[in-house]
Amino acid sequence: MTTSELTPDSPMADILDALPGARRALFSRYHLGGCQSCGFAPQETLAGLAARSGGHDPAEMLEHLLSADAHDQQMLIGPAEVKQRLGSDTPPLLVDTRTREEHDAVRIEGSVFMTQELQQQLFAGDPQREIVLYDHQGRHALDHGSWFQGHGLKRTRVMKGGIDAWSREVDPAVRRYRLEVD
């Protein structure tokens, strides 16, 4: 489903699929979707969620989600552009936000693994430093990117499609993999 096809009657699963940052946007403005008491089911519609959570206007909620997605889209950078930037005189810091196991198994050469210590160093460091975050498929790193930008690191970008897109579009020697969740 595309963003233009979303309506207040769309199931939350479709909204979350079309708008990767929707859960973050709902939680930040409406305190919805972040815990058991304010969660929602995949088949619940946005209108249903709005009605049972205090009578929010579902059309306004959808507009907020679309606006938040437009902001997220500005944060994204394609894998080919990342490769080009890495070859420049002032390359960005490439930060892997996946799990330690994923990073140890397969990574983009020159990237560093995100740790609490690294995060604190970056937050205390140069706010003009260019940073590119990546994850497996480019969805969860958007949350990290928003967190970094919210802490003053305005030149933080997120690689669109994550390491999976890097492998498909830039370097096929980087093995692709699939996560299986029990």
The N- and C-terminal alpha carbons lie at a distance of 26 Å
* CATH architecture tag of the largest domain: 3-Layer(aba) Sandwich
C-alpha Rg (nearest Å): 18 Å
- Helix percent band: 40-55%
Along the chain, the helix and strand elements come as HHHHEHEHEHEHEH
Looking at the structure, the CATH topology of the largest domain is Oxidized Rhodanese, domain 1
Strand content: 5-15%
Find the structural class using helix and strand composition. alpha/beta
CATH domain class of the largest domain: Alpha Beta
Sequence stretches where pLDDT stays below 50 over 5 or more residues: none
Question: CATH homologous superfamily name of the largest domain?
Answer: Rhodanese-like domain
Which shape, going by the Cα principal axes?
globular
Work out the helix count. Answer: 9
Written account of the structure:
- With 182 residues, the chain is α/β, with parallel strands linked by helices.
- The protein has two domains: 73 residues, SP0561-like, CATH 1.10.3910; 92 residues, Oxidized Rhodanese, domain 1, CATH 3.40.250.10.
- The chain has nine helices and five strands; from the N terminus they run H-H-H-H-E-H-E-H-E-H-E-H-E-H.
- It has a five-stranded parallel beta sheet.
- The longest helix is centred in the middle third of the chain and has 18 residues.
SSE map:
Layout: H1 12-18, H2 22-30, H3 46-52, H4 58-75, E1 76-77, H5 79-86, E2 93-96, H6 100-105, E3 112-113, H7 116-124, E4 131-134, H8 141-150, E5 156-159, H9 162-169
Parallel strand pairs: 1-5, 2-3, 2-4, 4-5
Helix pairs in contact: 3-4
